[in-house]
Design a protein that fits this description.
alpha/beta; seven-stranded mixed sheet; three-stranded parallel sheet; globular; binds zinc ion
Length: 283
């Protein structure tokens, strides 16, 4: 009952706000050289990965999904441009870079569409997952093949509260417990944290630091079902932008699908001449 109710409330909030309601003034991030984890890509491909029949990540794979092929992302920088490690965790909405790259993130974990796994296996577009325990615990396993493709699983709290209305100790519980749960389920300790709705305060920073994540990640654009919501007036992607998308549940998708929503987003990225890089290589 509790879980169901939480899910319903959450869907309502997501519909109303796109999980993007008023974020605290995002500032681009501070400093410290990074030697963080780089997820090891692996595959459980059905068509001999790397073999002659494997078109994953190629122009053919993009054409199959009716997306203009993207350039390959540049090599990961030797020093991460967003430094972390000392002081309060930086709050990051975009990455300082001149390259035409953006970063794709999927939140919550409501939709668990097997076709999305196929799509991402074929396209090899990197992305980051910010997952909430209440929303994923019906099927933790769904996210494992996505992780095995080299995509990191990061912390998005235990129950998706508005952290601004929570005490510091309640925030700590939400963040630290999810840190432990994700480590237990997926074998890796989250390195990044995203506050639900983009709502955070100084207690959040204190709690994040105590729990382990190195940075608070917000966003510059939010992918709706069909259109992109831009924060800037020019309604364009800028180098280094972080894009928010969701594993949207069927009640929100209403007739479209997770793969179609994702294809729409990737088309907008590709059509503006951008390609997708891996967030964890930069923070
Ligand atoms: Zn969320």
């Amino acid at each position: 009952m509790r879980r169901k109710a939480a899910g319903l409330i959450l869907s309502g909030l997501l519909l109303a706000t796109g999980c993007s309601a008023g974020s605290s003034s995002p500032n681009a991030a501070p400093t410290a050289s990074g030697t963080g984890p780089s997820a090891a890509p692996s595959s459980d491909g059905s068509t001999a990965p790397g073999g002659p029949d494997d078109t994953s990540g190629t122009a053919d794979a993009f054409r199959k999904w009716k997306i203009k092929p993207m350039a390959q992302a540049p090599a990961a920088p030797k020093t991460k441009p967003v430094r972390t490690g000392s002081g309060a965790p930086p709050v990051v909405s975009d990455i300082p870079t001149r390259e035409k790259i953006v970063f794709v993130t999927f939140d919550d974990g409501a939709e668990k569409d097997p076709k999305f796994v196929t799509m991402m296996r074929e396209l090899k577009v990197p992305f980051t997952m910010f997952l909430t325990d209440d929303i994923i615990r019906s099927d933790y396993g769904y996210f494992k093949p996505l992780q095995e493709l080299g995509n990191a699983i990061q912390n998005h709290t235990l129950s998706h509260p508005n952290l601004r209305t929570e005490s510091e100790s309640a925030q700590r519980h939400e963040i630290c417990t999810q840190q432990t749960k994700l480590k237990a389920e997926y074998g890796t300790t989250p390195h990044l944290f995203r506050p639900p709705y983009g709502n955070w305060n100084e207690d959040t920073r204190t709690a994040v630091k105590a729990c382990g994540p190195q940075a608070i990640i917000l966003w510059r654009e939010s992918m709706q079902i069909k259109g992109m919501q831009y924060q800037r007036g020019d309604k364009k992607l800028h180098p280094g932008d972080i894009i928010l998308a969701h594993f949207r549940g069927p009640s929100e998708l209403k007739g479209t699908s997770m793969t179609e929503m994702t294809a729409n987003m990737l088309r907008m990225i590709s059509d503006q001449g951008f390609t997708v890089a891996r967030l964890e290589d930069y923070v």
